[in-house]
Amino acid sequence: MPSKIFALEGQRVWVAGHRGMAGSAFVRRLAQENCQVLTVPREIVDLRNQSQVDAWLAEMKPDVVLMAAGKVGGIVANNTLRAEFMYDNLAMTSNVIHGAYEHGVKKLIYLGSTCIYPRLAPQPMPEDCLLSGALEPTNEPYAIAKIAGIKMVEAYRTQYGCDFVSLMPTNLYGPGDNYHPAHAHVFAALLKRFHDATIDAAEEVVVWGTGTPRREFLHVDDLADACLFVLEHYSGPQYFNVGTGSDLSIAELAALIAEVTGYKGRIRFDHSKPDGTPRKLVDVTRLRALGWTHRVDLKDGVELAYRSFTQTSAAARNDRAR
Ligand code: GFB
After folding, report:
1. What is the CA(23)–ligand 1 centre distance, in A?
2. pLDDT, tens only, 213-241
3. Ligand 1 centroid distance, CA of 79 (Å)
4. How does 278-302 read in b/e, with b if 16+ C-beta sit within 10 Å?
5. What CA–CA distance (Å, rounded) separates 213 from 216?
6. Closest CA to 66 of 148, 169, 138, 135
């Protein structure tokens, strides 16, 4: 374990995007640290608006920024809301990174995504395969915006000496996920669909695509832990993949979620829906060499995520009943 080069203690830490799945995990994780967490709802500061971001930074003067804000979604959301995914992410990224530079932020962590790597990248995908081939068309606008963010982080370090670092989380899941039937990522979409099918004793659940694409899944609390680890132990020009180092097919994921939710019916694959990238497994050698490894294995993670989903749904039902 390397020694700490930066201590969070006493720092003012702005979590940008604190209502999202990653941002809310950062807030939970930071509660264990002796630091001051700053958040602001989008009704007050729209991160796409440069002057609002600038005014917020001038007033709050954070020492650290965790940039978890972004417009995100699954394969269909990415493919249909192409303009929004591009504009919203480019605008938020550029306002937050440039503002952090202008207001003397000491450290910033930027969250990219593994869809920045070429569609047919070598597996597992090393950080160095960035920009070595064509992107997956279904999420190209989002990937281009994320690549712009990584390159901004790089450029602000080179030209201005900003201590900003990028992380590339693999597909995330956990509390605070979006369960929208069409726009969710596969994990949350299937968790909800299998849960509903179990409650309704449905005979069939439809899973999009062929079931053969392979994906890697990381519990969002592990991402939050990795983020603080990098913040405190690394300062330099490298960026880091964050994953578990193992993947499974969508068919295997569906079977696992069916088991955890208690679903006993049939699973049908809808070949009219897109498969996306055939495989997306990150090479985690670089972050492991720095001293960080994930803690939550997928089987435990599905159970944890399901528990959180059912508790949140029960709380929402109680709220509606009041
Ligand atoms: O999480 P997901 O939507 O996005 O997963 P990506 C897509 C894979 O899961 C495809 C299959 O192979 C889908 O055919 N799948 C099966 C489903 N059933 C469903 C379902 O009900 N909903 C969804 N969404 N998929 C995303 C990118 O790629 O990964 C983002 O689009 C981002 O930009 C994210 O990078 C991490 O893994 O393909």
Report:
1. 20
2. 999 999 999 999 999 999 999 999 999 99
3. 10
4. ebbbbbbebbeebebebebebeebb
5. 10
6. 169
Digit-coded pLDDT (tens) for 89-130: 999 999 999 999 999 999 999 999 999 999 999 999 999 999
Nearest protein Cα to ligand 1, atom 12: 275
Yes or no: say if 105 and 153 are a contact pair by the CB < 8 Å rule.
Answer: no
How far, in Å, is the centroid of ligand 1 from the Cα of 240?
22
Quick check: pTM over 0.85? yes
Return the closest-CA partner of residue 304 out of 183, 217, 184.
217
Give me Rg for the CA atoms of the chain.
Answer: 19
Pocket around ligand 1 at a 6 A CB cut-off:
74-75, 78, 113, 115, 139, 142, 171, 184-186, 189-190, 207-209, 213, 215, 250, 273-277, 280
Which residues are known catalytic residues? 142
| Contact present, 22 and 219 (Cβ < 8 Å) | no
Question: Which tokens hold the place of 7?
Answer: 């201590």
User: Which residue puts its alpha carbon closest to atom 13 of ligand 1?
Assistant: 275
